[in-house]
Write a structure and sequence with these properties.
The chain is 65% helix and 0% strand. It is an all-alpha fold.
């Protein structure tokens, strides 16, 4: 799994845990729905950490909680 996939999967997982849609997440975070969808559908291959922080704020979680999962722990080094 690559980092982009891990981020996408984590956003979807958190939406499921909070029982909200992608549009609701965008609303809670104060972001345009297209920004979130661009991350999920791969148009944004390198989402800014600030964008992820804003999503976390909308979910009332920390960045640490967002990234503290086995999927992120298992990521291999990626070369650009």
């Amino acid at each position: 799994m690559d980092t982009v996939t891990a981020v996408r999967d984590r956003i979807l997982e958190l939406c499921g845990e909070h029982n909200i849609t992608i549009n609701k997440l965008a609303d809670l975070a104060g972001l345009p729905p297209s920004s979130v969808k661009n991350i999920l559908y791969g148009k944004s291959r390198n989402p800014k950490i600030l964008t992820i922080k804003i999503l976390c704020d909308g979910l009332n979680i920390t960045l640490g909680e967002f990234f503290s999962t086995p999927a992120f722990d298992a990521l291999e080094q990626e070369m650009q």
